[in-house]
Specification:
about 290 residues; alpha+beta; four-stranded antiparallel beta sheet; about 65% helix; elongated
């Protein structure tokens, strides 16, 4: 029963995070990407270009393309398409369509295209990073990537980049050179922002502590920080003294507490702190 409650709580937290991330995506796309005709890839980029040559809004086109891609995903991938990805795709499509009804925009929010480009890059990229970090995606062209990966030997990253580049080139033809260049900047910056956000979300601190008395430090780690540690016994190369080497990993906020505790109680201890964004194991990230 306890396991069921824990699973329900975890599922609720995941879908709350999915909803928040998707709403951030909708805000970034609708307020900053659509009005400026920024077309740096994905379904929303295709929608921006097609809306200029078709009697339909970008939100409506996004909805139709996402539904078609979801259908392809179920046909070619079955359940591998992922419930989370389906949820995000549906919420994105409905959210954009609802925004067009509730908050119609006839022009850009500001008169500063560079400022709006920054938000058009940062908000969707931040959203994508959150989604990728919890095992979901925004759907759309990600579903095509999954199909290609399963049924072909194509280099998926290269294929998706070429598709996105084609969308950027199309925006140059449909709109103007300025819009195309802005879109190209967005395409180049998007992946960098996503990688940077994912790395910062998962950033942990790896401690290597060399000291004479490891017990107080380990007690602080286990009881106060609720973490664990590994102790090695070593010999100093210079004076040949017996030393204890403690290895532990903490969250960023806990790292300050641990560092201050060691400096206060054992000022002679040697501390090496390094950043790590990929910690897999109990208390951090699992293998699933």
């Amino acid at each position: 029963m306890h396991v069921d409650k824990q699973k329900i709580r975890q599922t609720f937290q995941e879908y709350t995070l999915l909803t928040v991330a998707t709403l951030i995506l909708v805000v970034g796309v609708y307020l900053f990407k659509f009005p400026n005709h920024f077309s740096f890839g994905g379904v929303t980029g295709i929608a921006v270009v097609l809306s200029a040559v078709m009697p339909a809004t970008p939100g409506s086109i996004t909805f139709v393309i996402n539904m078609a891609l979801l259908l392809l995903g179920f046909l070619f991938l079955g359940k591998d398409a992922g419930i989370k990805t389906v949820y995000v795709s549906l919420l994105t499509s409905v959210g954009l369509s609802a925004a067009e009804i509730l908050f119609p925009m006839e022009h850009a929010l500001t008169s500063e295209p560079v400022l709006e480009l920054v938000y058009a890059i940062v908000l969707p990229s931040f959203s994508s990073a959150i989604l990728f970090n919890i095992g979901a995606s925004g759907g759309g062209t990600d579903i095509l990537a999954m199909i290609l990966k399963k049924h072909t030997k194509f280099n998926i990253g290269t294929a998706l980049f070429l598709v996105d580049l084609g969308i950027v080139l199309a925006s140059c033809c449909v709109f103007d050179a300025q819009t195309g260049l802005f879109s190209l900047c967005g395409l180049l910056a998007k992946s960098l922002v996503v990688d940077g956000v994912i790395e910062n979300i998962n950033l942990c601190k790896y401690f290597t502590i060399i000291c004479d008395n490891p017990d107080p430090i380990c007690e602080f780690i286990t009881h106060e920080l609720k973490r664990s540690a590994t102790i090695h016994h070593a010999t100093g190369a210079y004076q040949h003294n017996e030393k204890a080497v403690i290895i532990t990993i903490t969250r960023r906020s806990q790292a300050v507490e641990l560092r201050n505790f060691i400096r206060k109680t054992q000022p002679g201890a040697f501390i090496a702190i390094t950043n790590s964004s990929e910690i897999i194991g109990k208390g951090f990230r699992g293998f699933n």
